[in-house]
Amino acid sequence: MRILLDVKRCEGHGVCAETAPELFRLDDDGELVVLFDGDEIPAGQEDASASAVRVCPVGALRRQP
After folding, report:
1. Within 13 Å and on the Cβ side, how many CA atoms surround 35?
2. CA 52 distance to own-chain centroid
3. What pLDDT, in 10s, does the model give residues 44-61?
4. E strands, the chain, in order
5. Which helix (H) or strand (E) holds 47?
6. pTM of the prediction?
7. Which residues are CB-neighbours of 34 under 8 A, at least 6 positions away?
8. Closest CA to 26 of 58, 45, 34, 59
């Protein structure tokens, strides 16, 4: 499972970072930063990643197998 970020769609609301701070944060310019390397969601973070995708107000995140 991995997370796909649509950078053009992301508006920097930060709801995903509030929901899953171990996976996402906003940088000083309000750009979303994914905090894990590679395509795979870290073990044990599947529920947090699903929540982050669900709460994104503009649908900029999605999970993909």
Report:
1. 13
2. 6
3. 999 999 999 999 999 999
4. 2-5, 24-26, 32-34, 61-64
5. helix 46-55
6. 0.88
7. 3, 5, 23, 24
8. 34
